[in-house]
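Weekly puzzle thread! Below is a chain. First person to post its structure in token form gets bragging rights.
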Amino acid sequence: MDDAALRRQLVQLGALHSDTPDALRLDELEALRSAVEGARSPLLHAEFVLLRARLHETRRPVAEMAADLELALLTFAANQRERQQLQCQAQLAYWYNLMGHEVSALAVAHRAMRHPGLPPEDRLALFTPVAMAYAHQLRLGDAWQAWERDFRAEHARCSDARLLREVHGTLASLHFFEALQARRVATVYTLDLDAGPPDHARFTAQLAEVERQVHASRHAGSALPDPQRLGDLLGMVAALRGDADRMQAHLTSLCGPPEQTRPTHGQLSRLYNLGWSLRVLGRPEQALPCLLAVRSHLDTVGMSKLVSRLPYDLSCTYEALGDPTAALRELRHFLRLRSEMAAADSATLGRLQDLSAQLDAPLGGFTPPRQLQVGSTRIDPVTLHQSEPPYLARLDRLLHERTGERRRPAELASELGVSLRTLQAALQRYRGSTLVAMQRRIALQRASEQLRLTELPIRDIAATAGFPDAASFSHAFRREFGVSPSMHRRRGLAGPAGQGVGEPAAASD
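Winning reply:
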């Protein structure tokens, strides 16, 4: 088959109706792989890689997809294909995030978003990798802020059913992570929580938001096949509520044993979600075979977030089974994998800097991740320059846990064990912000959630957020989110089409 005929087939596959299952598209594309790799045109190979990457599914190691995209990016740049070059960067953000390289995912996403030529649908598609990268760094507040600042307006204008469905699925995932924090479930998304009682009211409200976003996702894509991700989420919600029958209905029928040859990343993620749900339900003896089955197939996906999460869940499962030796072994494995993933992320960021130099545009525009604490062991995620001092992570927790308290900066510094001058200098260096600005931003984020999820009068919410009156609160809220508090509340009450700020593989990302 000559290059022209191959290109026509790729165009036809790319133009398939959106109700064509992704698995069918993937199989048809893979059938062309050997012909494309034997073609003389590098541009044809780059087009194949981009089309395949947009399916967000693979039977090959995730790192291979990212490496192919990096080469395709340079090919498109050399051939002055600006639109495809930008689409390639958007897809790199997705696959870097799936690899667990959150810093690199955020860097390339922000690079693409700064370009005025990025197509609107590709800009909105960046919401999922950006939000999931922040969530995995334990920065849910930044994920919500990114939604409001960078993606919500584009979402309101979007008419692509498949993309709308994905966005609502991601919003459901973020609410799911909020519910995990409120319930204080032991997961990789709650590693930074201090000991304390669960917040049952917040837990209930967040689970209701998960279900509302799942409904919105299904409504947006009513003509499309129901994605497995939505069923997974509902199954995990049922597990959190202790409803074993509903969990089984959603997950057991969906998560059969993976293919014995080369299961897809999605199939393994779904089996992991079943094991996770059984663990949360207090059935570790049933969870263990599922999680071990996932491990037996991990050579399929290579290093990814799924690989890094699995030992943590196995550790919790062995602990529940009364095997502390195996639990400690898995926890050590988890910490080692996190360290290896951070080093790999640093190497990816170095490649991105080289790519950026060749594309004549610097990287930047993202906030470095916090330092994480697991028991007595500190994990230092790799940042662009240098890790933050650990007291900034403790400051984040203090501010989020005591949102309604107006603490003086000197008191906070004293509680953190540093001088006020040291704290202010660290905030300016690592966050580009001040303590007062951080306190106000967090108070406004909590206020946005209260506006959507409660019927409290705006003046009461303003007082809780520390503002002297409703007028000053409204002015600050509009500056932060671009809408008035009353408009934000109306959007939240309008249903799925008007979702607001506080909206996991959901848990699989």
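Puzzle host: Confirmed. Bonus trivia for everyone else. The mean pLDDT is 78.
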